[in-house]
Design a protein that fits this description.
The protein has a 6-stranded antiparallel β-sheet with strand order 4-3-2-1-5-6, sandwiched between helices. The protein is built from 3 helices and 6 strands. Strand 5 (about 95-100) and strand 6 (about 105-110) form a beta hairpin. It is globular and about 45 Å long. About 20% of the residues lie in helices and about 30% in strands. By secondary structure, it is α+β, with helices and mostly antiparallel strands.
Length: about 150
């Protein structure tokens, strides 16, 4: 999908969380006939710490300490973060919306249709099953699935 985007250089203001890089809130956003659903991953700036949750903050897998869990899991403005992700992902069957939460302020990071370039397998079987159940391809949406000569009909 990046083949259709003209490259640009964008310069942004540096976000920092008290002189540290902010932690990522990745909201895996799914739209289907059942409505909006999501899963959450929180990760440190260097990706060495992570925690995967379902929409109800049930923990799927983590290497967080108790201190990190207390500091980053379910921030006070979490419902607002989910609403931002829901609005930004509207019209797409799946997309990951990345947000930052610094002192209660929500900042947009990026939207990606192919986390890890679509190549990283999900090793946790429960997490894989849950994500598979949430994602229902909108196969009738010709805007999403057009034959561009690279896939045989």
């Amino acid at each position: 999908h990046y083949d259709y985007i003209k490259p640009k250089i964008i310069i942004e203001e540096l976000l920092d969380d008290h002189a540290e890089p902010p932690w990522d809130y990745n909201i895996f956003s799914y739209h289907s006939g059942k409505g909006f659903d999501f899963a959450i991953t929180i990760s440190s700036p260097d990706s060495s710490f992570y925690a995967h949750f379902d929409r109800d903050w049930n923990l799927w897998e983590t290497n967080f300490t108790d201190e990190l869990m207390k500091k980053y899991a379910k921030p006070k403005n979490f419902d607002e973060m989910i609403n931002v992700a829901r609005l930004l992902s509207e019209g797409m069957d799946f997309v990951r919306v990345d947000l930052y939460n610094i002192d209660g302020n929500i900042y947009f990071g990026e939207i990606t249709c192919t986390p890890a370039s679509g190549l990283r397998p999900i090793k946790n079987k429960f997490r894989e099953r849950m994500r598979s159940e949430m994602w229902k391809l909108a196969v009738d949406d010709r805007r999403l699935y057009q034959n561009r000569g690279c896939i045989a009909d």
